[in-house]
Amino acid sequence: MKQALIIVDMQEAFFLDSENYLFDYEKVLENINMLITWARHSEVPIIFVQHTDSNKDDDFAFGKPGWDLYHGLLRQPEDKVIQKTTWDAFYKTELAQYLRNQQVEQLIFAGAQTEFCLDTTIRNAYSYGYHHNILVEGAHTTLDSRVLNAQQIIKHHESVWHNRFVNIQPRTFFQTK
Prior knowledge:
hydrolase activity; 6 strands; 20% strand; Isochorismatase-like_sf; 4 helices; Rossmann fold; Cysteine hydrolase; alpha/beta
């Protein structure tokens, strides 16, 4: 089954100001970079999804310092970058067509934010017919909300997603030998 690694919204905005730091971001970045290394070793296409806000004053607006993909990711020029303007990486983007052209059958997800763009993209991937997807434990994250802390949000979403929209795998499943 041909796979693709999809890394959602790991952008500088989450690392420029301590009030926007993602929960457990150092561990998450380590896990995402481990996945990137595994994907390169396994010849799995890597797709970076980049949120692009239409509000020119937003941190995620095109050209703003926060819009750039995080500099600490092991990104290479040949990696695919898909810009999106909503929480859904499939909506009005080239993602679905790119995956079809690459004959991808299984998606491996990582990134941010758990309850927003990652959740919407994971659920829509299932609607597009990707029914055997994987989410890597410890490779996605979010911020605290007014109601739940980030750890609770992550745990809740993993319990909803697992064995429905994705199978959650430990990072050790993807370590290169």
